[in-house]
Amino acid sequence: MIVNEAAYEPGLQDRLKAVRSALGLSSVQLSKSIDIEPYQWERFESGDVLPSIGVISSVGRKYRVSKEYLVFGAGDLFTDEGRHFANQTIRDRLISLRGERTAYSFAKLCGIGLPTYEAIENGTKEASIKQIRRIAEATGVGEKWLLTGDEKAKDYPVNDDLIAFLDAHPEIRKGLWNQIGKPEELDKKLKERRMALGLTQKQVAELIGVQRVTIVEIEAGGHRKDYALMDKVRRWVDSESVADG
Description:
The protein is mainly alpha-helical. The chain has three domains: about 80 residues, Orthogonal Bundle (434 Repressor (Amino-terminal Domain)), CATH 1.10.260; about 70 residues, Orthogonal Bundle (434 Repressor (Amino-terminal Domain)), CATH 1.10.260.40; about 60 residues, 434 Repressor (Amino-terminal Domain) (Orthogonal Bundle). Helix 2 crosses helix 3 and helix 15 crosses helix 16. The radius of gyration is 22 Å and the shape is flat. The two termini are about 30 Å apart.
């Protein structure tokens, strides 16, 4: 769906509020999650400023919100894939994390005062980014999971401890990059294998299940930050035979 800001149907600010309310996020939490400043989101919700299509796309991508709903006010708020976000909030995830522990012991573990924690769990107070970070560090889960419910971000989080460890161990970083597939290594291998098999870029893209532009960009040395996609291409390059198309 390619549109510009002029296509927005009236009432966009109300739809933005509805999205945030359904997600159970504060304006600070939502804005930080899509890399904009809180005051910018607040101006979007007040109707003083229209968000760019890039902002709309970021909200849609991260929270599986329907772009048709945001832009045109049509259809359901969430896509089928994203309905779980509407059914689970930060409060629900905190309750699941606490489990059988008392609110007192859990609050103490996280370094948060009991009244504050109880207010957050009861839904009468919004958790700050600092409090989310404390809870994540104390329980070993990802901040992103607490904020968004993204299950892939729950376990083995990318936090400051992991980054510090990787900074101190270049040999491990090298191994991880080899698994991801460095573009400067993958571009040559991809082209060599494709040429050896006598395939076009389009044919390779169809075999792997990616867009042709992906193959073009990788062969040109482009650094794509979609590591899952890069790994998919790398595994085809390293495979012994061409999969059935």
